[in-house]
Amino acid sequence: MPSGEDDLIARYFKPLATDPGARGLVDDAAVLAASGSDLVLTTDAIVEGVHYLPTDPPAAIARKALRVNLSDLAAKGATPAGFLLTLALRNADESFLAPFAEALGTDSLAYGCPLLGGDTVSTPGPMMISVTAFGRVPPGTMVRRDALQPGDRIVVSGTIGDAALGLDLLQGRAVATSEADRAFLIGRYREPQPRSALAEAVRAHARAAMDVSDGLAGDLAKMCAASGVTAVLDATAVPMSLAAHRMINSSAAALQRILSGGDDYELLCGVAADQLDSFLAAAQRSSVPVAVIGTAASGTAAPQWLDANGCEVSLTALSYSHF
Amino acid sequence: MPSGEDDLIARYFKPLATDPGARGLVDDAAVLAASGSDLVLTTDAIVEGVHYLPTDPPAAIARKALRVNLSDLAAKGATPAGFLLTLALRNADESFLAPFAEALGTDSLAYGCPLLGGDTVSTPGPMMISVTAFGRVPPGTMVRRDALQPGDRIVVSGTIGDAALGLDLLQGRAVATSEADRAFLIGRYREPQPRSALAEAVRAHARAAMDVSDGLAGDLAKMCAASGVTAVLDATAVPMSLAAHRMINSSAAALQRILSGGDDYELLCGVAADQLDSFLAAAQRSSVPVAVIGTAASGTAAPQWLDANGCEVSLTALSYSHF
């Protein structure tokens, strides 16, 4: 006597629940076996019309829902162990669920993060997808956000600002210089690339880390505030893609968009000076590009962003806030 | 430079994050320290207008959100270890958030289940509260849903049907015989009482268990199907509150509502015959009333519910389904 909800789970999500701890999704709970590791827990939800556009492809939405959580695990130096999925749906629409589940399954294999369980509920409102992801680290080694110290070098992975520009393109607020640039930037908005390959280097060599999701400037300010330090940043050292370079001019407004746009899902790390070479070498081995953009300093003032002339860049909004 | 979202978290939820693993809610992730226990994971979301009424008091909504998850942990024989909270809000309304957070804090202390972290997002639609709860059991001892065997006695805790009648009263589909009965039944709908006190007895003596959330008849059918067995039940043995007794007459429609109404958050257990006395004694020590309502049997037919004359009760809908 399976209900519609049970049918939906059996059809679309049971094939993804390959871990024995998922118990084939027939139980009320999943189990993660005892191990010598600390368990790192993170949860991020995405809401239709807020975190993704109703017109985004279902496969891209699935990837975003899982990957924003994998990005948090990577920032903590953790190895993925599995995830729980909560879906709030208006209806059980096969044309959405089939590609959504397929993409989620492909990603869960690629990142070694199996589906362990979840909940499916109906909602009369916008769709919402909430993922709770689990990772493991050796006891006591989770990399914290609040451990940055004066003198630590500030390092960021990948390129910054692409996703914000991609959203601008999708929403008609900007025009790309070519179709290829447009596709690249929109792809960066729709499909985060969690830096899981960098997790081991972060755990081994970074003193503090977080992922950049709400905007580099704001997230850096949060890391500094949590750690009780400030920082001096070289805005010209912030790594940008060629597509982003081509789109922006040198106006303050464009730089503001790059530094505070959000949805980057890159890693922001504080690395002690004597660990920097080891970190850079480990990053190179993992094939993730990283760039040193500044240095932490004593004090509790807001971090300073300096331009090519050493003048402070004035940022009017540092990051995205929901309220 | 705290954003509105960070302000909200610091103001309302940081006081609840007393566990060192919560890291004061300043990090992107929480940590559960390595231990010799298996970790039991469960997640349940509640949506405004679907799982609770917009007019329900904020404190009751908080308690329901956490307790439906504590109920799952109890059914698995697990001791609570903590929870993650995801809130999707239309706005940061203090008149909602203050009593909501206060009630959540009181419950988290009462049940020994501290807030470890979470996510707060905005939504243009109905409010949604998603909780992921963690519990611990000795390795390999999580009590499964799919382990029921022929001959096992079927036991249920507390009383069944109160919450369904409470919802009927709230929605004007029924009238109570007294104000006291009305208040009792509505309370049973609004504020589940997770049977955490019974968890140890379940782990020690039950072969299979699940919580009753979608309706006793449907949940029992799920347990039988998952276990590859059937069962014969005595409908007259299903424990009912005096308030429920006073409300219903003996019509099949009323019995149907009791057996399939849902929101009971009682525990349904399969107990091997030679463990029954020990289970009943342990339940008595925990002060949770339990009742034996039937016996599992070989076969894959739907479970049979028999009335006082030994005639099969015909149930047209076994449980609530979202789709």
Automatic annotation (TrEMBL), chains A, B:
Binding site for Mg(2+) 1: T43, D44, D119
Chain residues that bind Mg(2+) 3: D28, D72, D211
Sequence positions that bind Mg(2+) 5: D214
Binding site for ATP: G118, D119, R145, S213
EC code: 2.7.4.16
Class of enzymatic activity (EC top level): transferase
Gene3D superfamilies registered for this protein in UniProt: PurM-like C-terminal domain, PurM-like, N-terminal domain
Keywords: ATP-binding, Kinase, Magnesium, Metal-binding, Nucleotide-binding, Thiamine biosynthesis, Transferase
Domain of life: Bacteria
Residues annotated for Mg(2+) 2 binding in this entry: D44, D72
Reaction(s) catalysed by this chain's protein: thiamine phosphate + ATP = thiamine diphosphate + ADP
Positions of the PurM-like N-terminal domain: 27-137
Extra remark beyond the main annotation: Reaction mechanism of ThiL seems to utilize a direct, inline transfer of the gamma-phosphate of ATP to TMP rather than a phosphorylated enzyme intermediate.
Annotated function: Catalyzes the ATP-dependent phosphorylation of thiamine-monophosphate (TMP) to form thiamine-pyrophosphate (TPP), the active form of vitamin B1.
Protein's name in the database: Thiamine-monophosphate kinase
Source species: Rhodopseudomonas telluris
